[in-house]
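ok so i was messing around last nite and threw this chain in just to see what happens. nothing serious, just curious
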Amino acid sequence: MHNNFKIVCPVDFSECSLNAIEYAAKLGEKYGASLIILHVPNMEDYHKLASKEVGAADPYGFIQKKLRNLVHAVSEESIPKGLKSCSFEIKEGEIVDTILEFADDNKVDLIVMGTEGVNDFKKKFVGTRSSTLIEKANIDVMLIPRKVFFKAPRKFVYATDYHEEDKLAIQKVVELAGFFESEIDLVHVSSKSGIIDKLMHQSMISEITPFIKSEKVAFVLKSYRDLPGLGLENYLITAKGDMLITLSTKKSWFDQLFAQNLSKKMSYFINKPLFVIKNP
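result:
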């Protein structure tokens, strides 16, 4: 059990943010964490929600009531199973910056956030907040797509590009997998197939194996003619992975994808949770 592990889960009462709360609570049970449900006010949304409720004349009070009900439901379900505490906070400001400032001020270890994924509003840029959050964050971020409900993960797919930091990041992945007795596939996707890639892959296996305390880890090298991100999503589907995990540092593969804007596309169409390790 971790000391003072903190998870923050931003919520706007959309379906995907409520699904994210469920993931955050289940992870909080495993980590013995304090869960903070964070709401960044939007008065237009307040009035929309309030208009659906009879007698909801005070939108701000209405939202506080909704948050208290969420905290009560999570506490009743998850505190007996290991969650340390659950509370809510309301902070005004620009959404992404407010979430990150709150996380920094409160020494949060993990942000769990819903993302719209594939939906009819893609042209209106719904979902780009999650990409911006990952890009700016200094702490780990887990994105939960719309229509994805919690289930105990059977397999994690960890995407590697042969960086030294993988040795630390994989320990986080092994710990997370251990909570659920899950398998881990360490996958490198290359746009070409050749002897150099195979040699690098073998070298990575020999270097990273001493850092892995699990017998449920498989090392996979895949060649894919298209973009690496598409190859990863293809592997995630064919291998029946339950969550994609990747390391994000200034020199990592994932940040190169950001430079190509591919990661933003992935945040739209990926249909599995995405866990981005920012602090290995």
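not much to say yet. Residues 9 and 167 are 28 Å apart (CA to CA).
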